[in-house]
Amino acid sequence: MNDNFVTLANYYGFKRNASRAWGKYKEVPVSISDETLFFQVIVENSADVAGFLSTAKENGQIDDFDLSGFSMKIRYQNRSLSETKEFFESFIDFLILHQFRPVCGMCKQMVDTEAAMVKGELVEICDECFGKLKEMADKKPEVKPHSPMGYIGAILGAAIGGVIWVLIGKLGFIAAIAGFAIVYFALKGYNLFGGKHKRFTAFYIIVVAVLTVISAELISTFLIVQQELPNLRFNEQIKIMFDFILNEETVRFEFFKELAIGLLFTAFGAWKILRTLIDGPEIEIPLQVERV
Ligand SMILES: [Zn+2]
Predict the structure, then answer these.
(1) Which of 87, 104, 138 is at the close of a domain?
(2) pLDDT tens-digit profile of 112-158?
(3) 97 and 184, same domain (yes or no)
(4) How many CB atoms are closer than 10 A to CB 135?
(5) Distance from Cα 175 to the centre of ligand 1, integer Å
(6) How far is the CA of 73 from the centre of ligand 1 (A)?
(7) Structural domain count of the chain
């Protein structure tokens, strides 16, 4: 690593931080690092720039360059200070001769730009874009308080998943895949009713989901009993259902098989969806914008 850019920055009166220096030389906005010159300008005929830089590369004045749209990156590492200065000034003169126009890094318009630090990144942007960004940055994000209704939302959401479970079972498919839907809707419901993400949320939703899976499978089984023995009273049907689950081998096997697969799907859904909750809420980097 060489510190040419520090010397260059001082020589041209540029501002700088640890890794970059920036400023305008003969009205051309430029920023430099210890190995690259960055320009965000456009000339009438971009082929002229490519030609100029190719020649400079052939002559060994620069290492390499990269032109994409209005952004120009020119690598000049391992050049002496005087070599770099000579190239830098000749390129600036070339840009002026070819009536360069600065380009705003945000709106991509050919307008005057100034350097700004946006989320720690150095960019050349116009005043209008800077104003917009500044407004966004100054707006305090609305922090909604946690609503305990979220816990009810989770139960309602899980219930939707439970209904899906019962319906799939009714149609004769493996209801257990709805275990995924139960977790998914539980979390949706929790969010919808204003629950905030806390570590506890993850465990709460898992408990709700597991209870819903068990309930859904009980209801599915009950519906079969009701269908088979429609003349019995409700409490008798319930009693027979539990008798079957506990004592009738085939019913017991089906019941626990479905339950086990369902919980597997629940765990699968829970793993993906809830991991972020367990890891903690996402911390958004606040938008910081300033002219530099
Ligand atoms: Zn702009």
Answers:
(1) 138
(2) 999 999 988 999 999 999 999 999 888 876 677 788 899 999 999 99
(3) no
(4) 10
(5) 54
(6) 20
(7) 2
